Amino acid sequence: MFLALVLIGLVGGGAAAWFDYQRYTNAALPVGTDAMTVDVPRGANYPQIVAELRRAGVVEGGFRAMAYWRALGRELGVGGRLHAGEYALPRGITPRELLRRMAAGEVVQHRFTIVDGWTFRQLRLALANEAGLQQTLPGSSDEDIARRLGIADAKPEGWFLPETYSFVKGESDFDMLQRAHAAMKKTLDQLWPQRSADVKLDSPYQALILASIVEKETAQPVERALIAGVFVRRLKFGMRLQTDPTVIYGMGENYAGNIRRSDLETDTPYNTYTRDGLPPTPIALPGSVALQAALHPAPGDALYFVARGDGSHEFSPTLDAHNRAVQKYQLHRGQ
Asked: What per-residue string of b and e applies to 108-144 under the rule 16 or more CB within 10 Å gives b?
């Protein structure tokens, strides 16, 4: 009788321990905020990872908790295959779900957006302010960076595709530039062979330059092909582009927010009022819409355009019509 009672007690105790284990591993961890994360170092073994979770305050100490975490690792078979990286600890996550994510390598994905029309200088400033990226570029010149990326003539302007990129903790600012540069090269390689027959540009790089000017001339996607058409026709007829954004780029830090007549008359390699053809490099990072527009300009006879003041432009085929549009939208503005 006594032996039977002992056996019943052991079975009952084992069942209680099993139910307690299940309750613990399926209960929410004590996470304070949805922004909590934990880093799993490269090469860390399972006990070290559990110790890191203890330091983060999401695993209670004590023999019982440690025994349950060891048992959970064996149950899930994840002890030797947890991926290094940064993992989110949202409120409500359980030990079981956290180990599943670590085994699957579901690390936190950060996002970095390169904005259409940024200059390379603005891109570098944004990278320097991105706390999630390792900072390796401070102290490097633009030319050094371009050479590391294999950019011809060490001129990086324009060579990075604006879009939103995901990255994980541990990636660097240079890693981001590599990805954006590869994306731009791939996009140009795809679009260049499909260009319209009337596009008389000599190289994909010239298309990149033209697209950067289109990007800076209008924020309205529906107008980009129209503006590209104007520039393509002006190049065809041997007319100067006469576009303010190139002048502004050539002024560099001397630009204070306004262009004066003297600025239009001051010659720089980027002043398309004083020089023929395209400027020597892009003046910004063009987005895919601007690239499409440069390679597929809208047909028509417009050779001029002027801002209406509402974000759109008036297009004109002759200088007389253009002067009337300037009189209407620019000289009389505010009267």
From this structure: bebebebebbbbbeebbebbeeeeebeeebeeeebee
